[in-house]
Amino acid sequence: MSLTRTVSIVSILFFFVLFLSPIHASARVDLKTLDPSIMGDTLAAFHLSTSSTFPPALLGNIYLFDILNKESYDGSDFFFLEIKYPESEDGMHGRRRIYFYNAVKSMWEELPSIDNPETASVRALIHLPYARLAIFEDEVPEVGEASWYAYKDCDCAASPDYPKGSYLVVTSVEDSEKSVTVMVNDYGPDRAVHPDRIIDLDKVAFAKLASLGLGLIDVRVRLLQ
What PANTHER family does its record include (predicted)? Predict the structure, then answer.
């Protein structure tokens, strides 16, 4: 059974930030939390249709929202929808994005999304007055701990997820202004020993993000394409 409730434009699940939108603060939204099994067939089809080696996986529930006073919104403007992570966590996770179910095409489609581990939420641009939404997570982890080692004194790193020769952009979670581009030249860390560690940076690269004295820092790792 789904859980249904009517709430104001701001709820514990959804935070709407409106820009140049005809929706007023008095607008009301009907929110439902749906058990993923209700959309099981669509999720199976989604995994079969993706060409990715690591297809995104559903994270948490499926959410249904419906703007009740639709006369206040004609669909001509976009607004931002922010969904909090299902639960607080400190471990690694892959990039998270918001998808909506396109009933016309019978498929899940990605919304332009920004994953923000600092606020433990995902924000997306949307213009739909009604939609089934869900957070999907890439299987390749993107956020986790980084350590450092002294080896070749270069902007390089060891990664258990990307092959040697790959270029990665590593960004500090604490200070998003600090980033370094590294080349993978080794394998590691061993997830069996360090389950929350996403990458090992050469000390030269680590020092561009934080003091070596910290030992470990939280970072976001993205493949440079």
Answer: ENDOLYTIC PEPTIDOGLYCAN TRANSGLYCOSYLASE RLPA
Return phi, psi of residue 164, to 5°.
Answer: -60, 140
Do β-strands 167-172 and 93-102 pair in parallel, antiparallel, or remain unpaired?
A: unpaired
How remote is the C-alpha of 111 from its chain's centroid?
A: 11
**Fold classified for 150-223:** Barwin-like endoglucanases (2.40.40)
Distance CA 216, CA 146 (A): 6
Distance CA 46, CA 36 (A): 13
| Architecture of the domain whose range is 3-140 | Sandwich (2.60)
Q: How is the chain split into domains, by residue range?
A: 3-140, 150-223
Verdict on whether the full-model pTM lies above 0.90:
no
Beta-ladder partners of 157? 184, 201
